Amino acid sequence: MKGQEWYQAKEIADEYDSKRFSRGGQLIDQREKQAVLEALSPVEDKKILEIACGTGRFTAMLASNGADIVGLDISSAMLQQGRQKVRQNGVSNDIEFMRGDAARLPFPDDHFDAVFAMRFFHLAETPAAFLAEMSRVSRTQVFFDTFNRYSTRTIYNWLLPMGSRLYSESEVESLLGRANLTLTDESHDFILPYGFYRQIPGEIASTFRDADTTMGETKVGNLLASVSYWNATVE
Amino acid sequence: MKESLMDILACPLDKEPLDLSATDTESNDDDTEVLAGELTCTECGTVYPIEDGIPNLLPPDMRE
User: Fold this and answer.
1) Which stretch, A76-90, A165-179, A190-204, has highest mean pLDDT?
2) Under an 8 A CB cutoff, do A96 and B5 touch?
3) A127-133 LR contacts (CB < 8 Å, sep 24+)
């Protein structure tokens, strides 16, 4: 089953946050939020589009930091979760959720200051088309992450029910070039893959995470990282 | 969706402007929240529904 169908099921959407981001998964959530915030800051009054926003983890965070944000997803079940969440948190005034196709975005050229997608490209069957469309609607910046081909993730990647595509650095560089994007910054993390952290309790997870981060700061660590963050500017 | 979103929304197929026809709205402090209705492309006529406050801008070939 492909991600597109997998995340449309209501029962998957209902338990998405609790399944992914409890236990050791909290550390993943924190790291991803930090990556997004660092890449997009300063976010105040910035017009931002999030592709595959899901239940709105980043959408809500960016709105509470003053961004003017649109979250787009293909799954109505995930969006309903997101809409309920932001209404409860009182940040719904700066957020718009909508359903749409990432390859055919409902916006004019160059409308947003920044466009980003987290955990999206591993589910993308036609990454070049998606990246080109993100580049079209962004005036200045495009940010996204990928899961890496030569990493610990390959151990369990083939088992995942939603299918998951892994990328090498040269593939990402070629995709960026074809979408008229210039890489300005990259970082690599998680020698221990997400699947590992999700299985262990939070207090043990932080010990592993400390070791992971320390090793990740070395050259070898960068090569083994399972997740990469790519920050690019529109040419 | 807020009514002011109309300023930026375009038809996903031809990127032309859309017309809003709202059937259920809710007044906020400075904007109107559209809970249900339809968006119609001024050029190609494709209709996009708004349900539970969320516009569905999936092109017709991707709707189930």
Assistant:
1) A165-179
2) yes
3) A127/A165, A127/A175, A128/A175, A128/A178, A128/A179, A129/A103, A130/A51, A130/A102, A130/A103, A131/A175, A131/A176, A131/A178, A131/A179, A131/A181, A132/A178, A132/A179, A132/A180, A133/A102, A133/A103, A133/A104, A133/A105
Interface test with A, best of B13, B35, B54 (most A CBs within 10 A): B54
- For A62, the token pair is 């960016």
Q: Which residue of B has its CA nearest to A109?
A: B15
Chain A touched by B47 (CB under 8 Å)? no
Lowest mean pLDDT among A85-89, A153-157, A230-234, B44-48: A153-157
What is the number of other CB atoms lying within 10 angstroms of the CB of residue A126? 10
pTM (predicted TM-score): 0.87
The pLDDT of residue A16 is: 73
